[in-house]
Write a structure and sequence with these properties.
Elements lengths: L5 H11 L2 E11 L1 H10 L2 H4 L3 E9 L10 H8 L3 E6 L5 E2 L2 E7 L2 E7 L5 H6 L4 E7 L5 H4 L13 H17 L10 E3 L26 E5 L6 H14 L3 E9 L5 H15 L3 E8 L7 H4 L3 H17 L5 E7 L27 E8 L4 E8 L15 E2 L1 E5 L8 H17 L1 E2 L8
Parallel strand pairs: 1-2, 2-3, 3-8, 4-15, 10-11, 11-12
Antiparallel strand pairs: 1-5, 5-6, 6-7, 9-16, 10-13, 12-17, 13-14, 14-16
Length: about 425
């Protein structure tokens, strides 16, 4: 299905199966956008629904404002709750949207905040999946029971619901006044190290999966799984070269260097290329307004440090996003993207492309909420919630050529609409 933005996809899911509960997990939250979403949905599809928002930051606006008439209706019926998590205690940075209907559950995971720019304006990427409901008590039980995974018939959606269930069990403790923000400060890490933690996932088990839901907490954390896959590639004698592309809106020279150091530890025997696609160094506007000279020198200096001095990678290239027209589509239930023009890059993707000694290519892709600057790449137990979708089809024989070609084409397009070769001044 072709859609122009995330907002349209959410409305489509609401209309597809009468909404009973919506759970929004986001870093930035705009109640005005939620109000508009509800206004655009069919009244019959939302009249009996409940909405829960878990966020780190909220656009300041009172429920008394006319722009929030629809949300106020839900609040007056005790069907609307906001939980604002104190960033000093635990940072909610993952973006997960769960829509529970009468028969189905719809899951959205990716980079888009629940704001106007996130749902309608930026260049974002979201993974979408649906599952059939096996236990109708899911609407009342989520956030209250020990384990929610058996309530749906899809393992990926079950993994997402497991995270949401645990978050709600910790955060949704009080009978809040629904017209106010409940400020809660909880350390969430311990819950994911209890005895009910998901079984440790081994590399050989991944052959049974096409996609895997990951987050930054627990034994199967996003960072650990990513490094485990790289270690697996590093041990393969047939793999001779690895190209890693990180699409990230925000970065610094230091964060790129630290990421390069991390992958060097597990791929030191391979020929490694590191490509960064981003909005430009530190300030999006500055380097497009006062020329390429300073920009080019910083790229050149970083390249020399990574490749020549510290020898962390064999080749480094930086692609400065310019957001010109892109036409294409991503399969595997990925939201179709069309006509991206002059949009701020906010998507986060890590694409790993491997070449073996016969010339064949295999790959895997991580769609995530984590920038390259995220603490998850530096800390064993980070104080932040990030999420990710690991697409493994490019590593297996099943659908390998289709999935791999799809992702490779998409990543290559992102590079093609970015600046890479800039001219240094001559003396």
């Amino acid at each position: 299905m072709s859609v122009e933005n995330v907002s349209e996809m959410l409305i489509y899911d609401i209309m597809k199966d009468k909404l009973k509960k919506m759970i929004i997990i986001t870093y930035d939250y705009s109640p005005v956008i939620l109000n508009e979403l509800l206004e655009n949905a069919d009244e019959e599809c939302i009249k009996d629904s409940e909405i829960i928002v878990i966020a780190a930051k909220k656009e300041g606006i009172s429920l008394e404002e006319r722009a929030l008439d629809k949300i106020r209706e839900f609040a007056e019926k005790s069907k609307y709750r906001e939980i604002l998590v104190n960033e000093n205690e635990f940072k909610i940075h993952g973006k997960v949207y769960v829509l529970i209907g009468e028969r189905k559950v719809f899951i959205h995971v990716g980079s888009a905040n629940f704001t106007r720019k996130g749902l309608c304006g930026n260049f974002e990427i979201m993974y979408w999946r649906e599952a059939n409901i096996k236990n109708s008590n899911i609407i009342d039980d989520i956030g209250k029971v020990h384990d929610i995974r058996d309530y749906v018939d899809d393992i990926f959606c079950a993994e997402v619901l497991d995270l949401v269930n645990k978050l709600l069990k910790i955060l949704d403790k009080k009978d809040n006044v629904y017209s106010q923000v409940a400020v809660v400060s909880h350390q969430l890490n311990n819950l994911f190290f209890l005895s009910d933690e998901l079984t440790y996932i081994k590399i050989q088990d991944l052959k049974k999966r096409d996609v895997l839901f990951l987050h930054s907490i627990g034994e199967n954390s996003l960072r650990k799984m990513f490094l485990r896959l790289l270690e697996h590639i590093g041990k393969r004698s047939d793999v001779i070269a690895v190209e890693i592309t990180y699409v990230t809106p925000y970065h610094s020279e230091w964060s790129i260097k630290e990421f390069a150091r991390m992958i060097h530890e597990v791929l030191r025997e391979k020929v490694v290329q590191l490509h960064i696609v981003s909005n430009s160094f530190d300030n999006f506007k500055r380097y497009y307004s006062d020329g390429d000279v300073a920009y080019t020198f910083r790229i050149k200096d970083l390249n020399e440090r990574l490749v020549c001095h510290e020898k962390l990678v064999n080749k480094f290239e930086f692609f400065a996003w310019r957001g010109e027209t892109f036409k294409g589509n991503i399969k595997a239930e990925m939201q179709e993207l069309s006509e991206v023009k002059e949009k701020f890059l906010h998507a986060k993707i890590i694409h790993v492309r491997c070449k073996d000694n016969s010339g064949e290519v295999s790959s895997f892709t991580l769609v995530t909420s984590a920038n390259i600057t995220s603490s998850i790449w530096r800390e064993e137990v980070p104080n932040v919630l990030e999420v990710g979708v690991l697409d493994l089809r490019g590593l297996t024989k099943k659908e390998q050529k289709e999935a791999e070609g799809d992702w490779n084409k998409f990543i290559d397009y992102l590079k093609a609409v970015s600046y890479t070769h800039l001219t240094l001044p001559t003396n």
